Amino acid sequence: MRLSNTKAFSILLILFSTGLWTRSWGQSRSASFNFEDGSLASWIGKPGQNHSATITVDPLNPTNHVLSFTNLNQNGDIFTANSFPGTGAMVSVEKVMLSFDFLGTGNTPNNGGFCGLYVSDNQYYWVAGTEPTGLTLPPSPHVLLSPDGVWHHYDIDLTALIRQEGISQFRLMFEDWSGAGSGISGGVPGDVFFDDIQLMYHPGVSIRVSQMEVCWDTATNLVYEVQYKPAMTTNNPWQTFGPEITGTGSRLCVFDNVPVTEPRRFYRVVSKQHQ
Ligand SMILES: [Ca+2]
Ligand SMILES: [Ca+2]
Question: Domain range holding 216?
């Protein structure tokens, strides 16, 4: 028995399923700094040195407090007192994200705002800054900060860097770069501001819906086709899924694998009289 192409089908139902990636982060851990308590107790200078960071009033919001600097520096000015774990068994299953807000008020293209990961004096990574030539150490993410007088929010994925470099632990570091020895002006002290610094560890487990089951009640005098298309647009014709199905009077089901490259499909079941 074949279904006639010219005989109209009755549409029984239309539904859609999605195999969109769904990420289960589980329990995340984070460290955050908003500088509202007026304390830099969670921060230290370079080993053996004092830092020149200070908490100041946000130039654009007098009710907010932010991190800034009283002196120019290089090779890192202020560092988190805590070292954060970066590798070992954990690194294979976790995602590490750094986010912060940055404001640069200087009039120079580079006013010296830099953020990096510090492992040791011989191993450090500037991952974000206002001067591209200061972001050349591979394989850092190299996020160029915009010192254009307004706050910008940045989210930086550190996972690949930490894995590739096998970083066992690191501190976050910030500075108002002096540019000394580089021939590049670092602007003046105190024209860079950081706020809402957050380091988040996410469990890297993910789930995905990989199969759909379409079920419907059947009648013995009808035959059925299950059809699908990836989008409910007219330029996406319905495609028949599997062979014709003869009704049994009971509920029948078909299974469809959800391709990774096609995370959403719309389904419909059409019927015609048994011939
Ligand atoms: Ca703040
Ligand atoms: Ca500066």
Answer: 10-21+210-273
Assign 3-state DSSP to the chain and report helix, strand, coil percentages, each to 5. 5, 50, 45
Give the residue carrying structure tokens 């330029």.
235
End position of a domain, from candidates 188, 206, 224:
206
> Do 94 and 171 lie in a common domain?
yes
CB 221 within 8 A of CB 247: yes
User: What's the gap in Å between 118 CA and the centre of ligand 2?
Assistant: 20
DSSP states along 22-70? EE---S-EEEEE--TTS--TTEEESTTS---EEEEEETTEEEEEEEEES
Please write the tens of the pLDDT for every residue from 137-158: 767 789 999 999 999 999 999 9
- Answer yes or no: do 192 and 249 share one domain: no
Summarised one tens digit per residue, pLDDT across range 190-216 is 999 999 999 988 765 556 777 888 999
Q: Quick one: 126 and 259 in the same domain?
A: no
Residue 196 shares a structural domain with residue 239 = no
Span from the CA of 263 to the centroid of ligand 1 (angstroms)? 40
pTM of the predicted model as reported, rounded to 2 decimal places: 0.65
Spacing, Cα 149 to ligand 2 middle (Å):
13
Q: Relative to the alpha carbon of 71, which ligand is closest?
A: 2
Are 87 and 170 in contact, with CB atoms under 8 Å apart? no
Cα 89 to middle of ligand 1, angstroms: 34
| Ligand with an atom nearest the CA of residue 55 | 1
